[in-house]
Each structure stands twice: as C-alpha cells, then as structure tokens.
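[recover] target loaded
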C-alpha cells in the first residue's frame, strides 16, 4: 500500500510540475508576443482611437497608415540603406572577428590574455564617449555622409563582443584538427579557412545575428554622421512622424511593423542555418 501511495504521489507531483512548466511557458509567450500584438493592433488605429483604445483590437482598421508611413518616412530609401549597412557590417565582423578569434583560440599568441582584457575594456566603455572626436576625425577623412564610414564605425563598435563570443566557440573545437592540418603542410590561413572555420559555422551565424541587429537598430551614430536624406538608415525614419509637440502614433506604429519584418526574416533565416550548421559541424 505504501509503495502504491508513493507512486501515486510521484505521478501527481509529475503532473503538477508539468502543469506549472506549461503555465510558465504560456506566461513567457504572452510576455514576449504581447507587445508585438499591441504594436500590430495600434498600427491600424487612428490617433484618436489610440487615445481611447490603446491596447485593444482596432475598431476601424486603417491600412492607409502603412501607405502614409511608407511615403512620409521615405522607408523605401532608408530600408535599402539599412540593408546595405547591415550586410556590410556582418561581412566585416565575420572577417575581423573570425581571424582575431582564431588567433586567440588556436594559436599561441603572445599577450593573448592582455588582448582579451583590452577587448573587455573596449566593450565596457560606452561608445558615445568617442562621438565628438570621431566626428572631427571622420570629417577630416571625408567619411561623413558616407555609408562606408558608418559601416567602419559599426565594425569597431561590434568587434570586441563578436571576437569574445566567437573565441568562446572556437575554444570548444579540439586543436587536434588544426594540428593534423599543420602536419599535412597547411599554413595558418589554410587551417583557419578550411579546417576550423567550417566547423564553427554556428558561431559565425550567432555573431552575424548579434552584429546585424545592432547595426539595424543603431541611431546615435547614424543621425550624427549621416546628414544626406538619401543616405539615412531606417532607424532615423521615425523622426519624420513628429511635428513640434505632436507625434503621429499610428504612423509610428505602422513604420515599426514595417521595420520589424526584415529583422524577423533575418532571424528566422539565420536560426534555420544555425541549426543546419550545428548539425554539419557535429558530423564533420
């Protein structure tokens, strides 16, 4: 009888624990998706309806908000500029962080610990401190109002974190692979490109995802170093929906939905590739 009662208690406890886990998962899902749904609802409301119904379903959906936001915010131009900036940032970060992380993880680099300490300090210092001197430097180099100049800044801002993240992934790859390649006569660049980096594809995709999101959402350097309206990224388009002391919240929310869509597509694409790369790395 005691054994049956104990088994019954364990079964009841198992069901209770599962119920608690599901409830927590539901709460977290609502917490994560709730703001997105509210943003979607508000993008279909007029400003007057937003004031009276800020979180509910739109009573009279206005699809014209998306058309007006697209035209008034010049989103066709700013989205293209942000795609160029984000793509250039990701490619540059892959090159910089890949080579630096390989040197720190798979080479006996003199002063490697000092380099890591330097990266930690660079990551901890707020990048806004360099805004004024960097602007004067970029002006003297004719890199203002230049997408390449902004991309170079994003390389510098995102490289410390990217290098540390990628190094932590490369350390998990045994050195036996690189040592075997060196014995076969491969130089360091061949070892990095043909042996180590193909096995670290999930790490590169993670770093690219982090750097891409940072470049897509960055505002301060973008509005400071780009004055030409035809070169502004999409993060600056929200300034177009404010006039004096009034903001058009319906247009702002509609533009927010439009700006979110490429980010969601990028995340889903990299997430799928991340899983494929992890499986391929395990097989190799």
């Amino acid at each position: 009888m005691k054994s049956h009662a104990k088994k019954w208690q364990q079964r009841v406890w198992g069901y209770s624990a599962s119920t608690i886990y599901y409830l927590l998962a539901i709460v977290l899902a609502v917490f994560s998706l709730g703001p997105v749904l509210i943003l979607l609802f508000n993008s279909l409301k007029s400003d007057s309806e937003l004031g009276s119904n800020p979180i509910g379903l739109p009573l009279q959906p206005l699809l014209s908000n998306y058309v007006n936001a697209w035209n008034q915010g010049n989103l066709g131009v700013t989205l293209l500029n942000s795609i160029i900036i984000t793509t250039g940032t990701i490619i540059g970060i892959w090159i910089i962080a890949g080579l630096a992380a390989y040197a720190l993880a798979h080479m006996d680099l003199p002063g490697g610990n000092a380099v890591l300490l330097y990266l930690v300090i660079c990551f901890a210092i707020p990048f806004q401190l360099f805004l004024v001197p960097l602007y004067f430097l970029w002006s003297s180099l004719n890199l203002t109002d230049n997408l390449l100049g902004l991309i170079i800044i994003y390389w510098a801002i995102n490289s410390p974190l990217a290098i540390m993240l990628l190094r932590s992934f490369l350390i998990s790859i045994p050195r036996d692979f690189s040592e075997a390649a060196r014995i076969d006569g491969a130089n360091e660049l061949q070892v990095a490109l043909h042996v180590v980096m193909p096995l670290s594809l999930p790490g590169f995709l993670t770093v690219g995802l982090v750097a891409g999101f940072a470049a897509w959402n960055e505002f301060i350097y973008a509005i400071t170093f780009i004055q030409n309206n035809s070169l502004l990224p999409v993060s600056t388009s929200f300034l177009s929906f404010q006039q004096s002391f009034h903001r058009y919240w319906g247009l702002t929310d509609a533009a927010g939905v439009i700006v979110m869509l490429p980010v969601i597509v990028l995340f889903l694409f990299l997430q799928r590739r991340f899983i494929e790369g992890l499986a391929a790395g395990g097989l190799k």
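[recover] notes: The domain at 66-283 is CATH 1.10.3720.10 (MetI-like fold).
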